[in-house]
Design goal:
With 218 residues, this protein is mainly alpha-helical. It has helices at 3-24, 56-67, 76-79, 82-108, 115-131, 146-149, 152-179, 184-215, and strands at residues 31-36, 42-47.
Length: 218
C-alpha cells in the first residue's frame, strides 16, 4: 500500500464526523447540547454552528502525528515505518469515533449510554498496547521516563511489559464498561489507568538499577 493510499484512509477517518454532521444538520435545532453530566443529561448548550469546530480536533491530531517524526533527531519514530502508521490509524479511528459520537449526542439531546466512550477508550488502549513492544527509544511516544530514555535495554524491557499491561488493562476496561455504570465506571477507569501508568514507571526504575549494577560488575 503506497503512502498516498495510507494517508487517504486517514483522511476518510477525519471526514467521518463531518459526514455525519452533514447528514443530521437539517434536523438539528438552532441550540444544541454540547456538554453532558455523568448521568447523561445535558448541562451545557450552544449554537449548532459550534459543532463545526468539534471535528477540527481530529484534524489537529492528524497534523501533530504527521509532523512529529520531523522533530526526532535520531529518526527512531520514522524508522518504525508501518508500525507508526498503525498507531496513527488507531488514534485517528478512536478520535473520529468519539467526535462522531459527540455530534450524535448533540443530535439526540441526551447520552443514554455514556459508557460507550469508555468502551472506545479501552479498545484504543488495548490496541496501542499491542504495538508497544515495537516502539524504539524516542522523545514523543511510549513510556518516556529518565530510566527508559537513558538505557535502550531498559526501554525494550519496559515496553515489553507495558504492552502486556496495556492490552490487559484495555480489555478489563471494555469488560467493566459493559457491566458497571456511572459514576463507578469512571472511578474504575481512573484506578486502572493509574495502575497502567505506575507499573511501567516503577519497573523501568527497577530495571535501570539492575542494569547499572550489571555494568558496574556488581
Amino acid at each position: 500500500m503506497n503512502r498516498f493510499i495510507k494517508e487517504f484512509l486517514l483522511w476518510l477517518l477525519l471526514a467521518l464526523p463531518y459526514v455525519y454532521l452533514l447528514l443530521v444538520w437539517s434536523n438539528l435545532p438552532d441550540t444544541v447540547a454540547i456538554h453532558f453530566g455523568l448521568d447523561g443529561q445535558p448541562n451545557g448548550w450552544a449554537s449548532k454552528t459550534a459543532l463545526l469546530f468539534i471535528p477540527l480536533l481530529g484534524i489537529l491530531s492528524y497534523l501533530l502525528m504527521l509532523i512529529l517524526p520531523r522533530f526526532d533527531s535520531n529518526r527512531r519514530v520514522e524508522q518504525m515505518g508501518g508500525k507508526y502508521y498503525s498507531i496513527r490509524f488507531i488514534m485517528g479511528l478512536f478520535i473520529s469515533l468519539v467526535l462522531t459520537y459527540l455530534v450524535y449526542l448533540s443530535n439526540a439531546g441526551s447520552a443514554k449510554d455514556p459508557s460507550i466512550v469508555i468502551t472506545l477508550v479501552g479498545g484504543m488502549i488495548a490496541l496501542l498496547g499491542n504495538y508497544f513492544q515495537t516502539l524504539r527509544p524516542n522523545y514523543f511516544m511510549g513510556i518516556r521516563t529518565p530510566w527508559t530514555l537513558g538505557n535502550e535495554t531498559v526501554w525494550r524491557k519496559t515496553h515489553k511489559l507495558s504492552g502486556l499491561v496495556w492490552m490487559v488493562g484495555g480489555c478489563v476496561i471494555i469488560i467493566l464498561s459493559l457491566v458497571i455504570r456511572f459514576p463507578w465506571l469512571l472511578i474504575s477507569l481512573g484506578v486502572i489507568v493509574f495502575i497502567m501508568v505506575i507499573i511501567p514507571i516503577l519497573y523501568s526504575y527497577a530495571e535501570f538499577i539492575k542494569e547499572k549494577k550489571i555494568s558496574n560488575g556488581l
